[in-house]
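explain this:
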Amino acid sequence: QVQLVESGGGLVQAGGSLRLSCAASGSIYFSLYLMGWYRQAPGKERELVARIRAGGTDKNNADSVKGRFTISRDNNKKTVYLDMAGLIPEDTAVYYCNDRDIYFGQGTHVTVSS
């Protein structure tokens, strides 16, 4: 059973930075999998933020976070990261780790104050 546990969320002022982490367990072939981060803001649908393929160099970011967010992975630790900089209030959301567009974690809250 795949389990994804996010951490690193919190309250931050606009312009600040946060690093989110996602630890995967029960995923024997983690290093081969497409991983990603989604977010859901209050009253809005869940949206893709960033994705990273197995090798770690093929990445995609949503236009709204390009130049500010960076996704990375450590296959030895079975962990995916989302480094967020230049945060704005519109980034306020619950952030979810995703495995192959199949599995989601419970989410971690990010609140950006103006």
Summary: The longest strand covers residues 18-25. The chain is about 0% helix and 50% strand. The two ends are 40 Å apart (CA to CA).
